[in-house]
């Protein structure tokens, strides 16, 4: 829900600010400041979060392992070749066994139904670390990055004070997405319009590049398609018209490698470049974002490594937003109150 999104973002800012203060060498601080230092919450003390990952990951794994450590706990990485799941054991039995020995499951899966199966049988909270349909924790990091760079979208505004723990306010933005309708875009579709931002999406003509029915049903259910919340076409130049932010993702998501040749053909003309955004009429101050990992096909080096790019602060923010999710959803989860009997 929108209040939950705001709570997670505000909590991310508070955790980021507290932890940075705590990490700074004490020698550079006055004694008074040092004594005022507070550690991040240790809500995962003596607790374990299982990282049940059936696909590769750099950011999501780093974010979760480092966040769990900061919260005083442990993330236990269980890759597809490490455990019995899928070879000798069912998702149902695996969920019950992992949930019997840990306090939460962060799962990166293939088909989204695998997340639903884990949720059904796990006695502890399950958080989606990427599925065929959704990538919710990515969107939290993207939102935090937009809020932290809110001053870039308001002429004359000054950058936020890093010592302040409040989430900076963000004006309603026009956000263009040029590329494949995959998990990251799907979460954008069900989130940004509810927060007052407009989405302009361009995907190739073939209907297979449109959002699948399960995603569109949720868009409609949450009324994200109302009030011009989403414009969808095939022309990347039209999509970037008036855009404050231009985003994309890989054209070949994990598991789609066999379709690479066809996809490169279908996405011709979709590369994000200065020229595309100038000709399309983006806001001259437009910024670029990408969940990463990135290939040059979808965005050229000039944009990716240029002044407009927010991609690395965006990647860093995976940690603080994952930490907020772990703290609020797993660390403060109460088995007695919220949990199902083990
Ligand atoms: N953005 C993201 O989820 O990256 P990884 O696949 O490296 O975790
Ligand atoms: N759409 C991409 C996102 C990677 C973070 C994939 O699923 O591979």
Automatic annotation (TrEMBL):
<dbReference type="InterPro" id="IPR006130">
    <property type="entry name" value="Asp/Orn_carbamoylTrfase"/>
</dbReference>
<dbReference type="InterPro" id="IPR006132">
    <property type="entry name" value="Asp/Orn_carbamoyltranf_P-bd"/>
</dbReference>
<dbReference type="GO" id="GO:0019240">
    <property type="term" value="P:citrulline biosynthetic process"/>
</dbReference>
<dbReference type="GO" id="GO:0016597">
    <property type="term" value="F:amino acid binding"/>
</dbReference>
<dbReference type="GO" id="GO:0005739">
    <property type="term" value="C:mitochondrion"/>
</dbReference>
<dbReference type="GO" id="GO:0042450">
    <property type="term" value="P:L-arginine biosynthetic process via ornithine"/>
</dbReference>
<dbReference type="InterPro" id="IPR006131">
    <property type="entry name" value="Asp_carbamoyltransf_Asp/Orn-bd"/>
</dbReference>
<dbReference type="Pfam" id="PF02729">
    <property type="entry name" value="OTCace_N"/>
</dbReference>
<dbReference type="InterPro" id="IPR036901">
    <property type="entry name" value="Asp/Orn_carbamoylTrfase_sf"/>
</dbReference>
<dbReference type="InterPro" id="IPR002292">
    <property type="entry name" value="Orn/put_carbamltrans"/>
</dbReference>
<keyword id="KW-0808">Transferase</keyword>
<dbReference type="Pfam" id="PF00185">
    <property type="entry name" value="OTCace"/>
</dbReference>
<protein>
    <recommendedName>
        <fullName>ornithine carbamoyltransferase</fullName>
        <ecNumber>2.1.3.3</ecNumber>
    </recommendedName>
</protein>
<feature type="domain" description="Aspartate/ornithine carbamoyltransferase Asp/Orn-binding">
    <location>
        <begin position="173"/>
        <end position="328"/>
    </location>
</feature>
<feature type="domain" description="Aspartate/ornithine carbamoyltransferase carbamoyl-P binding">
    <location>
        <begin position="1"/>
        <end position="148"/>
    </location>
</feature>
<comment type="similarity">
    <text>Belongs to the aspartate/ornithine carbamoyltransferase superfamily. OTCase family.</text>
</comment>
<dbReference type="GO" id="GO:0004585">
    <property type="term" value="F:ornithine carbamoyltransferase activity"/>
</dbReference>
């Amino acid at each position: 829900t929108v209040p939950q999104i705001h709570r997670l973002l505000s909590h991310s800012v508070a955790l980021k600010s507290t932890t940075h203060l705590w990490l700074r060498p004490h020698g550079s601080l006055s004694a008074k400041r040092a004594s005022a230092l507070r550690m991040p919450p240790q809500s995962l003390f003596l607790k374990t979060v299982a990282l049940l990952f059936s696909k590769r990951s750099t950011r999501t794994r780093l974010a979760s392992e480092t966040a769990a450590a900061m919260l005083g706990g442990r993330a236990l990485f269980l890759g597809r070749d490490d455990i019995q799941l899928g070879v000798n054991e069912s998702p149902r039995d695996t969920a019950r066994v992992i949930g019997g020995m840990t306090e939460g499951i962060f799962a990166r899966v293939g088909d989204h139904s695998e997340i639903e199966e884990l949720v059904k049988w796990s006695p502890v909270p399950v958080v989606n670390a990427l599925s065929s349909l959704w990538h919710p924790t990515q969107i939290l990091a993207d939102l935090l990055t937009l809020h932290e760079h809110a001053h870039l979208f308001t002429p004359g505004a000054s950058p936020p004070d890093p010592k302040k723990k409040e989430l900076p306010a963000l004006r309603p933005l026009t956000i263009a997405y040029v590329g494949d309708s995959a998990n990251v875009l799907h979460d954008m579709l069900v989130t940004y319009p509810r927060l007052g931002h407009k989405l302009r999406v361009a995907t190739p003509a073939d209907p297979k590049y449109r959002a699948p029915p399960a995603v569109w049903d949720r868009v409609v259910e949450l009324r994200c398609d109302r009030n011009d919340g989403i414009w969808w076409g095939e022309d990347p130049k039209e999509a970037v018209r008036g855009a404050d932010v231009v985003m994309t993702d890989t054209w070949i998501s994990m598991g789609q490698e066999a379709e690479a040749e066809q996809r490169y053909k279908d996405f011709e003309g979709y590369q994000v470049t200065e020229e595309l955004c100038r000709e399309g009429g983006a806001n001259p101050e437009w910024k670029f974002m990408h969940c990463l990992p990135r290939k040059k096909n979808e965005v050229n080096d000039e944009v990716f490594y240029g002044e407009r790019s927010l991609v690395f602060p965006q990647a860093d923010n995976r940690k603080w937003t994952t930490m907020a999710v772990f703290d609020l959803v797993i660390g403060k989860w109460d088995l007695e109150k919220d949990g199902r009997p083990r």
